[in-house]
Every structure is written in structure tokens, then in C-alpha cells.
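Section 4.2 – Deliverable D4.2 (structural model, holo form)

The reporting period included a commitment to supply a predicted holo structure for the target in complex with zinc ion. Inputs used:
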Amino acid sequence: MKSEPAPSWANEKQGRFFTRIDVTTMLNGAVLAVPLHVITGRAPGPTFGIITNTHGDEFLATIAIREFVNALDTARLRGRVVLVSVANPMATAGFGRQTPEQHGRTDLHEVYPGNARGNTTQMIAATIAANVLHHVDALIDFHSGGSGGRLQARVDYNARTDDELKRKNLALARAFGATFVHENEFAGSAAHYLNSRGVPAVNPEVGGAWLGPHATNYYTVMMVNGLKGMMQHLGMLEGSPEPRSPLHFDLKARREIRPKNSGYLVSRFERPEDLGQLIKDGTKLGEVIDLYTYQVIEELVAPHDGYLFFSRYSGMVGGGTQAFALAEAAATRRLD
Ligand SMILES: [Zn+2]
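Output (C-alpha cells):
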């Protein structure tokens, strides 16, 4: 579906191009603009859209995407990568998940296709839709664990599509090579909107924030390999993605373990390698220590056998926040 006018970058020749697309003005006097990288290959091929920093505290993908696109040889690239490096600059400036603005609907992950005369978040979405989403053959919206302190290693794809698009979404998700693929729902996201137009689009959710060197390197390698695998799958790069057998689960198999109380969580699962482990029913995942009395006020325990698909590392938690999540073993399958 490409009935919209051609984007400003449609006639870019082989090479790299960077621009900023104005959205609106901000109260600090600066112009709010969306940054756009266009990397065009020598040979024709698909247009692959990448957006990241949709949530302003999920920044790890930045260094992996930078490493990956800097290494792309445009002489060997078929087609084009169109990349929004910071989808929500206002959320990013505030180190927060959502846009700091007065009115509601401030999560860019929930407002697509946006509204050019809506609030600031909706204007950002409308700008990205008009300049990127309406002109791509496939898209990823790249997330990671944010200031909540969680580690992630999965690619989410949309459950609410027809069978053919679902198959394409799953194939794109698998090409990334993460530990898990998760059939999920995310109404209002860029990927969901593109799916409604028949275009495959999925959300990698990998790594975390403020990690040490081991975990940063572990996830950066996973992300760079993932981008390469997806572009091989799309026929934009030579070769094919490494065959992998990810764990697949849907929303019915998803179980989140949340502390009832706030405090300091001592996590027993805070290494990247812990994700994908089969955790037995009754295993202690962590404990919450009261910041004031130093008492252990809660133990978090696996409620059934399941594969650990996100985990929180040790640190402060608010009551009710997501700490650990298991894909229920009985409802999870390893794809061939
Ligand atoms: Zn996110």
C-alpha cells in the first residue's frame, strides 16, 4: 500500500544521507525534529525501516544499530535502510518512557498512526508515519529493557493478523535469532499499524539499560547479528540467517511475577545467560528487602515450571512493578 506521495529521500543514490524532519516547536525554544538516516545500496531491493528510542529510557539498541549501519557496505547492499535513531526525542531528553507533555496519550508506542493536529506525541507519530512507515516493505521498532532494570531477549510479533501476514511476521522475528519469539498484542504501536496495512513489522525487545561491560557486549552482539539476519532474510544482504530454534510462546503462556511491596530486590537471575533457562516450580527468583527496616519483606517464587523470558537485576523496585516473567513450560514450544 504505497498511495502516499514519495518521501523526500526517494531519489537518494547509493550512499548515506542524514536529515532531521521538523515536527513542532518546544517550550525551550528549540525545534522538535525526528532524525532520519537513509542508507541506500547499489542494487535495488526492499526498503527496511528501523525505528528505535520509541521509549526514552531504552537506549541500548543505539550502539548496536550504529555499529551495524556503519559497517554496511552499500556496494553490497540491495535496497535501502531508513532509520529513525531517536523516535521520541522529548522522552529521551527526560530519560523517561513517555513524552513529558500536559495531555494524555503520551506513549509513542500506543498512538500510531498519530495525528498531525493532535498532541505532541501524536504529531511525532504522524511525522514518522508520513516519512517512514508509509514507504517501507518491512519494519522493526527496536526496544530494550529500560530504567525498570529488566533484561530482555525476545522479538514480539502481532497475534492479530491474517495467517499470511502472521507467517511473514514470524519469519522476520525468527530471522533475528533471539532466545524467544513472543506472539503479543500491541495496539497503537508502529508495528501494529503497519500490520494493519499488510506490511510485516515486529518489535525486538533485547538487553537492558546501564549494564556492565559483559552484558552490554553480549546484547550488542545479539542485536548486530539480529539485524544482519533480518536483512539476509529480506534478501538485502548475502547469505541466510543462522538457523536457530527459539522458544515460542503467546499471551496465554505469559506469567509475570511482581512484588507486592516496594524495596530493594535482590535478584537471583541477573545474568544475560539466565534468560531462556527452564525454572522449576517453587524456585526462589529473588527477595525484597525493606529500605527502612532492612527486613526481608517478600520472597518471589516461580509459580510453575517456565522459561525465564525477562528478569530484573538487583536494585530498587516499586510495589506492583514487573520483576520476572516466565513462559509457562506446558504452553511453550521450541520451533524447529
Ligand atoms: Zn519499549
